[in-house]
Design brief:
- The chain is built from 18 helices and 14 strands.
- By secondary structure, the chain is an alpha/beta fold.
- The strands form 4 sheets. A 6-stranded parallel beta sheet has the order 5-2-1-6-9-10.
- The radius of gyration is 22 Å and the shape is globular.
Length: about 450
């Protein structure tokens, strides 16, 4: 990438202090930007965990890429220089073992942890996890992470940046369970802070590549697209040094949980609701035009009563800002992208709301509508992109009426647990909603 003086990155670090697992678009639009803006020389080694496509795009560009930011006022682009190495998954353990690395961060999506969202434990019916545990060179994220940690002596912080409830504690539990089952010992001091990350990052299109080229005057194969809004809340619990992310706007706190729950239930839950209700609509901005009032009622009547709001936080303004962000037509966020991996996302985004409302003696009417829309998606989607796709399709293939479909899917306790499977109130809400959605289709 040949850059003019005006388009060069603010900083190009000379050394690596962070290993990041899953160097997809979200990390490059979020944590890597914070790392560069911190301005204290921390470089990132990004490691792909599945496809080598990102490495193929970034290695010829010396790790440089551009962030195309789209807002109501127009678009801008900047080049980021924080990523100094891009490697494939086989290099994970050796790079984590480097004592110069003090932070290992992850954005591998919910399904990348190969865990049961209902229990937070490893899925022992997952063949890849079983092969790793029984001694082959690891292929899974948890296996590679554990092998790298086992090779270390120096302290390190492992920073989960995925949408898992209590993500730091969940990841610690998965690492400890893997170590126990595989007979692996991790001797180094290791911290697992909780985090909350927030920025909408749609998939990059050919039109995005052209627009970034027009703005920068150079062709970039690694463009990522995002919105002006960004937020990062981090539990202040580190085992070793860290970048000055707070200087770049990150919030360090002793308790991430209220922020995490708000984001998962308001932003992510609403996003999933829009994706499944608007499954015939291409973009979120179009779906919110049709279903904005329904989403508002979900946020106000179901999600908000379940939240513990941090002191001084303006919840009404936050909810209003979410609807404005969803309605941004320049972002072109596809509903199909959000609809992926629903079996892994529902427990964090919607089912916690359902449980809390039922515990309060209330009917989670709007959250149940979102879950029913997912059930309709499972029935009707031409291609179901989900790690449990075969199980889900088999369940609904034998179901006739909406009530049969509801019973078949509720019986998958890896998603719903026995409590929601056995809830007559939840079942009746789902059946009524699914019958109405089926009749309207």
């Amino acid at each position: 990438m040949r850059l003019s003086l005006t388009s060069r990155p603010r900083e190009v670090p000379s050394s690596v202090g962070i290993v990041h697992l899953g160097i997809g678009a979200f990390h490059r639009a979020h944590q890597a930007v914070y790392t560069e803006d911190a301005g204290d020389g921390w470089g990132i080694c990004g490691i792909t965990q599945r496809s080598a496509a990102v490495a193929g795009r970034l290695v010829p560009q010396d790790g440089l890429y551009s962030v195309l930011e789209r807002g109501p006022a127009g678009a801008s682009a900047r080049v980021i220089g924080a990523v100094r190495e891009v490697l494939t998954g086989d290099a994970t353990a050796d790079r984590i073992a480097d004592p110069a690395v003090r932070v290992v961060s992850l954005t591998v999506t919910e399904k990348g942890y190969r865990h049961d969202p209902a229990t937070g434990r490893l899925r022992l019916d997952d063949p890849e996890t079983c092969l790793d545990i029984t001694g082959r060179p690891p292929h899974t994220v948890i296996g590679r992470l554990v092998r790298g940690l086992a090779l270390r002596e120096a302290p390190v912080t492992v920073l989960c940046c995925d949408n898992l409830m209590s993500n730091g504690a969940t990841l610690r539990g998965l690492v400890e369970e893997y170590c126990e089952r595989a007979g692996v010992r991790v001797a180094c001091t290791t911290a697992f802070p909780a985090t909350m990350v927030d920025r909408i990052v749609p998939a990059t299109t050919a039109e995005d590549l052209d627009e970034a080229e027009r703005l920068l005057g150079v062709r970039d194969a690694g463009v990522v697209v995002t919105e002006p809004f960004t937020q990062w809340v981090i539990e202040d619990d580190f085992a070793a040094e860290r970048p000055a992310w707070d200087a770049a706007g990150a919030i360090f706190t002793g308790d991430v949980a209220p922020y995490e729950t708000m984001k998962l239930r308001l932003l992510n839950g609403s996003h999933s609701m829009l994706a499944y209700l608007g499954s015939g609509v291409e973009y979120v901005s179009e779906a919110v035009e049709v279903f904005g009032d329904v989403v508002r009622r979900y946020m106000d009547e179901d999600a908000s009563p379940t939240l513990g709001v941090p002191p001084g936080f303006d919840l009404a303004a936050y909810k209003a800002s979410l609807l404005e962000r969803f309605a941004n037509p320049a972002l072109r966020h596809r509903t199909a992208q959000i609809a992926m991996d629903g079996s892994q996302k529902l427990p964090q985004r919607l089912l916690g709301v359902v449980r809390d409302r039922l515990a309060e003696g209330a009917e989670p009417r709007w959250a149940a509508l979102a879950v029913a829309a997912w059930m309709r998606h499972v029935q009707t989607a031409r291609e179901l992109d989900d790690p449990l796709a075969d199980l889900l399709r088999m369940a609904v293939s034998r179901a006739g009426t909406p009530g049969d479909v509801v019973d078949a899917l509720l019986s998958i306790t890896d998603i719903f647990g026995p409590d929601l499977r056995d809830s007559a109130i939840f079942r009746d809400l789902l059946t009524d909603h699914l019958a109405a959605l089926t009749a309207a289709s």
